[in-house]
Structures are given as structure tokens and as C-alpha cells.
Amino acid sequence: MTYSANTCHSATPIRSIKPRARFSLLSFVTNRLDLLNQRRQLSTLDARTLEDIGISRRDALKEAGRPIWDAPESWKN
Q1: Where are the alpha helices (DSSP H) in the chain?
Q2: CB-based contacts of 31: which residues, under 8 Å, 6+ apart?
Q3: Taking the CA of residue 49 as centre, how many other CA atoms within 13 Å lie in the half-sphere pointing to its CB?
Q4: CA separation for the pair 63, 65 (Å, rounded)
Q5: Is this model's pTM higher than 0.70 or not?
């Protein structure tokens, strides 16, 4: 009885696998929900806390009223 090794050689080279993109739908949704939560919390801060962080009530309400897709520039990189 004779045994032979059956090998398979591909004529095309194996392409290297690209690293997964850092951006994913899950991270996008999570970031936007975090942003929404932060803006809601900002709108509830009292005058003394807003003064401590250097934001006027008007600016806090303006920021809190921004749409969820309007993210800070630092998030867009």
C-alpha cells in the first residue's frame, strides 16, 4: 500500500489582510449617545457650576440644543 501526500498550491498569491478600520458603526452610535448625554447634563448644571467651568447659561443651553450629528471638531478626525 502506497500513501501519497496530496498538496494544493494556489497559482495566485495570498493577499495580506487589511487591518480593521478603526471606525465602526457601533463606536459611531456609542459616541453620539455619549455626546447626547453630556449635552443633556450640561443643560441641567446650576449657575455656580457653570461659572466654575467658565461657561455662561446661554452658552450651555446653546451647546445642549445642538443636534446629535453636530459633533466637536476633535471627534471628526
Answers
A1: 25-43, 47-53, 57-64
A2: 71, 75
A3: 7
A4: 5
A5: no
